[in-house]
Amino acid sequence: MDAKVLQNVCRQVYQKHPEVRGVTPKVKPQTSSTFLLIFESKGTTANGQTIRHTIRAVVTAEGKITKLSSSR
User: Fold this and answer.
1) What does each of the 72 residues of the chain score in pLDDT, given as a tens digit?
2) Which of 21, 28, 62, 65 satisfies CB 3.0 to 4.6 Å to 36 for a cystine?
3) In the chain, what are the domain boundaries?
4) pTM to 2 decimals?
């Protein structure tokens, strides 16, 4: 995946999910033209518990996000 395309996709994900801002994603190729980007971070709840945030994005080689999901 091209670095410029990756940077553009990361910017889009950071706008929708600011809790992962600044996290470098793990990039896994799925097919010859799609990639899976996994953003992982940790946050703190109101009572002090630690919670993990995972954002998964399926992206084309051109940088179009075809699927975006999150878990907490």
Assistant:
1) 899 999 999 999 999 999 999 999 999 999 999 999 999 999 888 999 999 999 999 999 999 999 999 997
2) 28
3) 3-71
4) 0.90
